[in-house]
């Protein structure tokens, strides 16, 4: 994906900085990113597979490191191929997991998880996180979701996660989180520029930003853990 899409679009960086406008497939149109990107089946699959490539290491860390014993169900919001759902299910035989994403993603998710020994404990739920409530579960995960959207949508998604969780439930947000002074994490800052090139209002954010939005939504406890590579997770307890 870096080769066939992003390299070329980064040629528009100056234009993006001058105008604040995306420089990818949606540069000249008015259709939203995912509708445009997913209109071509080959590009849809390339994007979802690339998400697995980007997230696989962090997914394995979350599957092993989070205290899953206290919980029974989880849902991964914007699950793509479902690698996180699969890694958690394989490492924790007592858990049942759901991948939530747009309907067009379902066949690609089903194909990917069908090879897992944990397939019987994994389901796909189609939906649109801008419409209605999020599925209920003990733990809600969002990987590289919030950085796709502007501040109001970020807050809205965190608020919907709060509503869908039981008391004591956990929200895990994981992304390439930026250090609070925004001066050390070069990759993470470049990822935020990548979101300028790829989306209408998306941007990456600091650990402190994310925890502040979670507290505002009502979460009583938050903590940050470094995962692998540039990714960290913020855990919020309702
Ligand atoms: C940047 S990808 C992240 C994928 C995966 N969570 C990861 O970290 O590798 C964003 C995901 O959000 C999904 N998505 C975008 N808009 C959505 C919507 N309105 N409702 C549900 N899922 C959506 C996309 O299909 C995609 O799988």
Q: With helices defined by DSSP (H or I, 4 residues minimum), what is the helix count? A: 9
**Bulk shape:** globular
Instruction: Kindly estimate the percentage of residues that lie in beta strands according to DSSP.
Output: 15-25%
State mean pLDDT (0 to 100 scale).
Answer: 96
**Overall SS class:** alpha/beta
User: What's the helix-strand series?
Assistant: HHHHEHEHEEHEHHEE
Contiguous uncertain segments of 5+ residues: none
Largest beta sheet: strand ordering: 3-2-1-4-5-7-6
What is the strand tally? Answer: 7
Radius of gyration, taken over Cα atoms and rounded to an integer in Å: 17 Å
Q: Largest sheet, described in full?
A: 7 strands, mixed
Q: Calculate the terminal CA-CA distance, rounded to whole Å.
A: 37 Å
**Which distinct ligands sit in these coordinates?**
S-adenosylmethionine
Helix content: 40-55%
Can you walk through the features of this model?
The chain has 238 residues and is of the alpha/beta class. The protein is 42% helix and 16% strand. It contains nine helices and seven strands, in the order ααααβαβαββαβααββ. Strand 4, helix 7 and strand 5 form a beta-alpha-beta unit. The site of S-adenosylmethionine has 17 residues, from helix 4.
Topology:
Elements (H helix, E strand, L loop, with lengths): L1 H8 L3 H7 L13 H6 L2 H25 L7 E5 L5 H9 L4 E6 L4 H8 L8 E5 L12 E5 L7 H14 L5 E6 L10 H13 L8 H11 L3 E6 L5 E6 L1
Parallel strand pairs: 1-2, 1-4, 2-3, 4-5
Antiparallel strand pairs: 5-7, 6-7
Bound molecules: S-adenosylmethionine (SAM).
